[in-house]
Amino acid sequence: MTERQKDRPWLMRTYAGHSTAEASNALYRRNLAKGQTGLSVAFDLPTQTGYDPDHILARGEVGRVGVPVSHLGDMRRLFQDIPLEQMNTSMTINATAMWLLALYQVVAEEQGVDITTLQGTTQNDIVKEYLSRGTHVFPPGPSLRLTTDMITYTVAHIPKWNPINICSYHLQEAGATPVQEVAYAMSTAIAVLDAVRASGQVPEEKFGDVVARISFFVNAGVRFIEEMCKMRAFGRIWEQVTRERYGVTNPKQRRFRYGVQVNSLGLTEAQPENNVQRIVLEMLAVTLSKDARARAVQLPAWNEALGLPRPWDQQWSLRIQQVLAHESDLLEYEDIFAGSHVVEGKVDALVEASLEEMDRIEQMGGAMAAVESGYLKSQLVSSHAERRARIEAGDEKIVGVNVFEATEPSPLTADLDTAIMTVDPAVEERVVTAVRDWRTTRQESSDRQGGGDPFHFPTVQQTLDRLKEVAAGTGNLMEATLECARAGVTTGEWSGALREVFGEFRAPTGVSGAPLAVTAEAGTPLALVRDKVEKTAADLGTGKLRFLVGKPGLDGHSNGAEQIAVRARDAGFEVVYQGIRLTPEQIVDAALAEDVHAVGLSILSGSHAQLVPDVLTRLRAAGANDIPVIAGGIIPSSDAEDLRAAGVAAVFTPKDFGITEIIGRIVDEIRTANHLDPLEVPA
């Protein structure tokens, strides 16, 4: 080998945050001491969706899947004793991205940092929220404006910051094929760049600076050769788009820059030790090829299908990266796939198909129009349904799930209660109390003191009024948002003010437009379940069985709920599915109004312990004891036992991959609840 300088490793991150700002700060400092080279902040769902911890929809969600940040005080504690001028901080935040960046900037200013030196990323991709993750708040138009305003502000004032991470990660988890992942992400980038150019906020000669700050956040699945080729296709298309559509001549500004979180929802609850090798293969997809290597990588933990990983689990994932970067010879060579006809052929095919899909979206009016029409969502739901059907048929093999299921007892999961981290339920009460204290103790007067001399500061209400005034006009919203942050406004107050002006948005579910994914010919499992559905409907004297699929709380991971809804529809149910973000009261009201025969609740965020029993209690209070409640999601075994003891008819977790079988079980529970004899349907 010709001697050459060893390449610098990618940024190594761990996606982390939980409970409180103080607890998360301690975790960050421990991770940095272990050799992590960048921070990746996970915010809880109330923070992501613009609610304070004491809002009704935040119940059960505070501090569960990330850290609650309700105001400037929380952000100060989150980064206490962490020098922000030395950090590269990624913040996974979208609808409220402008607000969290404002808080981060103000904390940096308080630390004495020159904000032009700040480095990091705000995800800020609202399109994939409408399609897959579900933490959107505002309609597409205002959301795109918030994104545009952030981009133009950072290019002018925080030039090293990546104001948007076009995020195809969740698209893959929602069912996207590699072609769909590339095409939808690129179409989103085009929509954003077109909006920035049309805003007139950036001079034409500076537009290359905008393109240079666009980054991407992608998923890497276990088909690592295909995933590596996908990354090369991404880079080739980005080069073409930025050169031809936007006229960027500087090669450095056209560089495709991306970070990776390898696939999490593809991890299995069954034989979870297999997840370690899955994670390694997925990481290789985005590190082996120098010409398509990620700039930053964060890996999930082996036990994420079981619950919240512990710090030790996250350390294991960090060590996987470190072993590859520092013990192997990976970084000593040029691109090892250069000249491969196999790789080039696969990349060519991906590029051609992706450009065709991008053209189709362009003909519809672009990514935003394709979101509002429901086209993108229905395509994802259909792709996901097809993949689930292949898994159930055994055509797509998953070790430990539908093949090689025999296993020795695992010492890793011998004690499931200690194999994951749990968040103390008392944390929520403390955080709620703290935000209420903040509202009563923050300085509201206009004569606050600064540096010993009197200064005029706007009050909380004045800053909120100013925010609404700017929102109702056409000005950039970032300065007004910064004033809100400095005044002590809360996350819920900032979002609430914009909700008053912009309104809210409920994204299309994609369920009604999804085609049949599993055949129902005579003798097939689906045909047998359809027969059970029809016989049970006849026994109950109703035309059709009615099944409500509900998403209580703020969990926006709707993939599982959508697949259950589609399969129940195909099995002959009349399905009631209103999408995400509902209170238990709304779900029960809908169940009673639609006179349903069963209620299915899907929760992946950990709030099942509070929200599912609430639905049960409300149904009983309404006298609807004959409506069985079924729960599904990432539910630890001890919690599942508690739910069944509380009256839940059945609990399904990721190990229950047979959706047709689940629908059959739901029919059985309907019969049991209505005192009907079991049906003997041949297997």
TrEMBL record:
Q: What is this protein called?
A: (2R)-ethylmalonyl-CoA mutase
Q: List the keywords (alphabetical).
A: Cobalamin, Cobalt, Isomerase, Metal-binding
What cofactors does this protein use?
Answer: adenosylcob(III)alamin
Q: Subunit details for this protein?
A: Heterodimer of an alpha and a beta chain.
Which organism was this protein described from? Streptomyces spectabilis
Protein family according to the UniProt entry:
Belongs to the methylmalonyl-CoA mutase family.
- Where's the B12-binding domain? 544-673
Question: What domain of life is recorded for the organism?
Answer: Bacteria
Provide the GO MF annotations for this entry: cobalamin binding; metal ion binding; methylmalonyl-CoA mutase activity
